[in-house]
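ok so I'm stuck.
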Amino acid sequence: EVQLVESGGDMVQPGGSVRLSCVGSGFTLSTYDMNWVRQAPGKGPEWVSAIAPGGGSTYYADSVKGRFTIWRDNAKNTVYLQMNSLKPEDTALYYCARGTAAGGYAYWGQGTQVTVSS
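replied:
not stuck anymore, here's the structure
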């Protein structure tokens, strides 16, 4: 059974940092596109970042480029998202999602809440 479990969400002040983790089970994470997607209250899902299988090329939404970093630890079957210089507009429920060849998402975790507020 494929499962994704996120953790690391927190409440921080603007300018702070948070590191999110997503542990995969039931599949080898490094052989799939892995994504972070967020949803702010009252808004639709927003793709944040992705890491490709194999060589691990990384991709970022313009809104987080230069502030967020995605990487994975193959030994731990885990993908991470380091979030620096956080802004109130980064407040959202952050999901880890396994991608599909068609560009959608086959599996989602339960989400972890990040709140940026003074």
